[in-house]
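call fold(seq) -> tokens
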Amino acid sequence: MIEAFSMREDEKFQIIWENAQKMPEMEKAMFYELERKKPIVGQLLVLFFFAGGGLIYAGKAAKGAILMVADFVLLGTFLSLRGIGPITPGDTFGTAGLVLIPPILALYVYTALDVRRSMDEYNRRLYATVFDRSPP
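ret:
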């Protein structure tokens, strides 16, 4: 399954390389700027969308979807234990819900760092594919 995603990405970069060989330098620069992943967009998706949104933007859809589900479950459990939801538990459950804050924060920090790494890796590969004369 992972090989299929890798093959699609390899095929995509092969097509980009073939098309880039026919482009003038200015057109290559414009193409690169349009196709590269913007770090601020990925970080904003992590912050405002569930944690996996930035990874989906960065091209890691499966990992992003798994982290979105994990984030949804953690936040749902936290909000339910804190009394925001259909059930209003007592103080014992509300205090127990505070235990979930460190894993939620760790998930967001991990995702933000992984989004940055994934986008840097993608942008480096795209730059080399567009501007390098040797095949990818």
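The chain has a mean pLDDT of 82.
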